[in-house]
Specification:
The protein is mainly α and about 425 residues long. It is built from 20 helices and 5 strands. The longest helix has 24 residues, at about 210-235.
């Protein structure tokens, strides 16, 4: 205690007596005055021992060493960082709190994962072995998961669904490991969404009419599409992307093909439902056209609006046929009654009723202006005394260029659309 008082003398002289009165003061109390956040100091030292030591004066270093010996059972001077890393990974007495502190912000201590890798004890079959502490255990499990997902290219849909759900039970807990926070468990992250795809696609998308099929989809089956995109967005490397794609090919693609064929059959029997044009809106209103905003991505936008405390309502209707921008944009615009189908060429352009000319972007905008709509550029908000037509987003064009990689861009597009709204 006398030694600790000596180390703390400069701080102690500046401490109010009321903060110490009525306590039985021991060495730890005085060392805490010098080193008030010992867990942070321990993690900083473990992250970079030389740099941490250089940042302490003799009194601070002495207090740090004393606390490590007394509370954590090791001596930084004689035992070194690997002993400390092993104790950290084992999470014994007093070390569990240090581990929790590390988990709160692991990116602050980039050197600690390598220390843990070097310090991992041999074996691992001990009842009290903490596999979640060691980066190589997480890597081994990621590798096994990658191999199994990649092998699903050979599985039938039923077998693949069972396998995905079993893998989720085995690997799902790794999303709570510190390695997931550091981005080192992308397949465990993707697996959560693959499991949702497996669960939703157990039920076929059915219904006797196109409207029934659509209602069934809108009531929940859309989640298969949303989860498939989330699974693709969770991974970056080519090997991981292939593994996820193989799993989706086994459990998702057959469901999609079955749904598409069934929908075609209902349309063949009952006809394709009409696409309602957007009616004229009142003064002070703006129609914002977002190209490629299909139903499942629309739900993501609605969640973003709710989080931003913006009131919204959601609905749906059938897309114009064929489902390409050149057809769909005029069909849902307030000027839709001025146009008709029957255009020719690869672009599927509709025609103006008056003169039979193809509906280009310029002709659509001119028709909207004649109907009293301001065409509002991307960087403007228009005159709120009138009504407006605006467009935003590149989901459709990016999808053509990027394919499955578009999945990682959807959040970006939704945030941009939210900002524009």
């Amino acid at each position: 205690t006398k030694e600790a008082i000596g180390r703390a003398l400069c701080v102690l002289a500046d401490t109010r007596v009321e903060e110490l009165r009525g306590r039985y003061l021991q060495a730890a109390d005085f060392d805490e005055l010098v080193n008030p956040d010992e867990m942070r100091s321990l993690l900083i030292w473990l992250n970079d021992p030389e740099d941490a030591r250089g940042g302490m004066d003799e009194n601070e270093w002495g207090a740090f060493v004393a606390r490590c010996r007394e509370k954590y059972g090791f001596n930084p001077m004689s035992d070194g960082p690997l002993v400390a890393a092993e104790r950290l990974g084992e999470r014994g007495t007093n070390w569990q709190s240090v581990w929790q502190r590390f988990e709160e912000a692991p990116e602050r201590y980039p050197g600690i994962p390598d220390r843990l890798r070097q310090a991992r004890p041999s074996g691992g079959d001990n009842l009290f072995f903490e596999a979640s502490s060691w980066p190589q255990d997480n890597e081994r499990m990621e590798g096994a998961l990658r191999d199994r997902l990649a092998a699903m290219a050979e599985d039938g849909p039923g077998e693949a669904r069972k396998a995905v759900l079993a893998l989720e039970r085995e690997h799902g807990m790794r999303r709570d490991w510190v390695w997931a926070r550091l981005g080192q468990a992308p397949l465990a992250a993707a697996l959560e969404h693959l499991a949702q795809v497996a669960d939703v696609t157990k039920t076929a998308l059915g219904g006797p009419t196109p409207e029934d099929v659509a209602q069934h989809y809108a009531e929940g089956q859309w989640q298969a599409d949303a989860a498939a995109l989330e699974a693709l967005a969770a991974v970056d490397s080519a090997a991981d992307a292939t593994a996820v794609a193989n799993a989706l090919g086994a459990i998702y693609r057959p469901w999609l093909e079955e749904a598409a064929l069934h929908f075609q059959q209902t349309v063949q029997k009952h006809g394709y439902p009409e696409t309602p044009a957007t009616g004229d809106v009142g003064e002070g209103s703006c129609i914002l056209f977002a190209d490629g905003l299909r139903f499942d991505i629309g739900q993501r936008l609605r969640e973003a609006l709710t989080d931003a405390q913006i009131d919204s309502e959601a609905g749906w209707f059938f897309a114009a046929m064929p489902t390409v921008t050149a057809t769909a944009k005029p069909a849902v615009s307030p000027a839709a009654k001025r146009f008709t189908g029957g255009g020719t060429g690869e672009d599927f352009l509709p025609c103006t009723i008056d003169d039979g000319k193809s509906v280009t972007t310029d002709r659509l905008r001119k028709a909207l202006e004649e109907q009293g709509y301001q065409i509002i550029p991307d960087d403007k908000v228009g005159d709120p005394a009138g009504r407006g037509w605006a467009e935003f987003g590149g989901l459709d064009s990016r999808g053509h260029g990027e394919g499955a990689k578009l999945a990682r861009r959807i959040d970006e597009e939704v945030r941009g659309l939210l900002s524009r709204i």
